[in-house]
Amino acid sequence: DKLLSEPLSHPDFFNVKELFSLKDLFDARVHLGHKKGCRHRFMEPYIFGCRLDQDIIDLDQTMQHLQLALNFTAHIAYRKGIILFISRKRQFCHLVESTARECGEYAHTRYWQGGLLTNAHIQFGSGVRLPDLLIFLSSLNNVFEPHVAIRDAAKMNIPTVGVVDTNCNPCLITYPIPGNDDSPTAMELYCKLFRMTIIRAKDKRRQDEVFSELR
Amino acid sequence: MAGNRMQKIGSVFSRTRNLLRIGVIKKPLWFDVYAAFPPLREPVYRVPRPRYGKVRDVVPPIFYQEDQVRARFYRVYGSGPRPFDLSQSNYKSTCQRFVEKYNELKEEGKIEEEKLFEETGKALLASGVILQRRGTDKVIQQDRQDVETRDPVLHLQLQTVLEELQEKKDQEEQTPELAETQKEDPLPS
């Protein structure tokens, strides 16, 4: 189908690079990580250095990862995929839910019951459509363990995009974004970026459908 | 309705690709997008084993040349006279100004290295920044405590005397003000 295959030929069809800059990431304090003792072993390649025991995340790598992740979400939204925002931080649960409502997508910021993805047909009834993308705005739950949904998405073959802080495990997340997940400014920046990409992708889809109908 | 739930074997993409090749699954929405824009690292599960033996710290510590000046500044003067106001992104603390002045004087090269520190202190005093040395503060506090414990009666007497002096000063200030206002009144008319 030409409508779906054409966007894949451009490297940056939705022009996500213009939505953020290095200065924006720095001002939103995305580069600040946790202390040296909290560091996860697999986050070491994404860390720039350690300033007086506090980890500083390499923003050049974050830019690359963020561009890939936003591009992926834009394409999924263009193809009318279901997106689920997940964050177990109580401080930002309202922000995440309002972001999801504005995008027209879904959010889950409460306690994750065991079989929501893996046991979906029994929990929700048969014929459920599972989400096509999970976006983690903080990949740990309230006990500082990796969120169960990361493992469940890998089980159900659902791709994930997630913000990984210096104490998180980025192995199972398809498109990790190394960055701070504790500051309010950083979370507002991420919510703003995801909201803008999804709305842009959906508008583009509506326009392209209208054009193809006219032809 | 087949599926592969083994999250520890390969990545999501490799499993779906193999299932598609067999033909037991319909192509999912995200497959083409992933194939066109793969991530920098394939999301394969790795066991998070802790390091054994001698632990090598792979992450480099961040230190700048100016840190030596900053360390000396904080050791001598304590934390600066003004608190840090981080709401402005272009805020320069007293320590930062000290470091910049130090670098300027160093580049000029006319002053010797040992005297650079004192010269920057004097230069900052000249530009209006008051720096209090950490040692002297402690001495003043100790003196005050000694005075209070020795003679509370004397302290009270001193307080009353000071208050009287201040009242006298206020009265003196009021009378010249009255005189000034009287002088001003005839002027505009």
TrEMBL record, chain A:
One of its GO terms (cellular component) is mitochondrial small ribosomal subunit. SUPFAM superfamilies: Ribosomal protein S2. Its main location: mitochondrion. Gene3D superfamilies: Glucose-6-phosphate isomerase like protein, domain 1 (3.40.50.10490). Keywords: Mitochondrion, Ribonucleoprotein, Ribosomal protein. It is found in: Mitochondrion. CDD domains: RPS2. GO terms for molecular function: structural constituent of ribosome. It comes from the Eukaryota. GO terms for biological process: translation. Pfam families: Ribosomal_S2. Belongs to the universal ribosomal protein uS2 family. Required for mitoribosome formation and stability, and mitochondrial translation. This is Small ribosomal subunit protein uS2m. It comes from Nyctibius grandis.
